[in-house]
Amino acid sequence: MSTHxxxxxxxxxxxxxxxxxxDDVVDMIKQNDIGIVDLRFTDLPGLWQxxxxxxxxxxxxxxxxxIGFDGSSIRGFQEIHESDMLLKPDPATAFIDPERExxxxxxxxxxxxxxxxxxxxxxxxxxxxxAEAYLKASGVADTCYFGPxxxxxxxxxxxxxxxxxxxxxxxxxxxxxxxSGRNEGAFGGGNLGYKSRYKEGxxxxxxxxxxxxxxSEIVFALMNAGIQxxxxxxxxxxxxxxxxxxxxxxxxxxxxxxxxxKYMCKNVARRHGKVATFMPKxxxxxxxxxxxxxxxxWNGDKNLFFDPNGYALTxxxxxxxxGGLLKHAPALMAFCAPTTNSYKRLVPxxxxxxxxxxxxxxxxxxxxxxxxxxSPNARRVEFRCPDPSANPYLAFAAMLMxxxxxxxxxxxxxxxxxxxxxxxxxxxxxxxxxxPGSLDESLQALERDHGFLxxxxxxxxxxIETWIDYKRTHEIDPVRLRPHPWExxxxxxx
Length: 494
Hints:
This protein is α+β, with helices and mostly antiparallel strands. The chain has helices spanning about 20-30, 60-65, 125-140, 210-225, 250-270, 315-325, 330-335, 340-345, 390-410, 425-430, 440-450, 450-455, 460-480, 485-490; strands at about 5, 5-10, 35-40, 50-55, 65-70, 85-90, 95, 105-115, 120, 145-155, 155-160, 165-170, 230-235, 240-245, 250, 275, 290-300, 300-305, 355-360, 365-370, 380-385.
């Protein structure tokens, strides 16, 4: 396991008490012999960015006044003629980074526009903050809890290339079913076997599951960062699909946790000479990686989604929330399944939630009500369409806004479909609306349906227009314009 001079990753080291004020951060630095403070923030597509400062820079002024950076070099942010931006660290997010050799304290920051003298409208974290504020102002509830289930792959190697004269990707994994015939092993021959067959990777013990210890190291790293973890396990797909489940938290806090989660997974895997990816569908013919999002609304210690007499023990308010999710799902997909690759996942037959329906227990429905427990505290909706390529700040905020719109308008979720929707007769299946079939369709839906996001100025028209333009210019068009390898299989001899 990784160590640096002041931190050792050990079981049981979960720290629930986080700093709350700048003075707490200063004390944390002194007590742990910190030498570097790493300031982190999220670009518009959802990738962490950072730079590091030394101890003389850690003053109260850093927290109150911020520190400058070039916003024109960050995806989705400013143009070059308006590039000066500020970062203000949030002391409540500080954690000691167990993956760095030097003793490093990481702090998540908010982005500030120095000209407008306020929070930057395209800062994804600011959108999440506004969504939480809008919830409280609505009077519906005071807290929205999120519990995302992020799935990801750990491969031994990944190679890819696309240029004027070639295009390919090559995945290597000792767990892959396709490696059952190759020579391997300590003595240069034979095969070690125990490959997870396609769609049969769920819950096997070692030696099938070769990643148990790596996942445990990721768990300890997350706990050291103050994140409570509930379980971890191998997932359904061959070639090293995994899941680590964090305990639920409030919307903004959970979005922060997702960014820390991705960071730890990637860095622990790299330390072992492997690579972690949150790309939704890296393998053809096997299950993809989702980010099923469990959600509930609370007032104090009361779960507003529970009703002992309601369908699946849910309240009418819960069902209206689900109605909002389902009504706005095509537009939500622009933030919740925001890559061209996302729609390789959203196809029938791979536990993918392509059907916009509500159900209890049924994993073929977009909105599932888990029935593991009849406890009032456990009542929630699991929205299964999102995937881990999403920017969590934007995706969580968008889902909350859709749910609140459903509550405001008493939107019915439709009749429950408590059966395998994939096996419905054709005449019944045609009546079930499905998610969009491509990122371009989702962006078109967002263009038509985004009024619910603008309420309370949570999302701005500028952010939505910037998002749509970025996705079309930098993702959809580059994929659309390049020959696909399978087109050679189909058309070369035409």
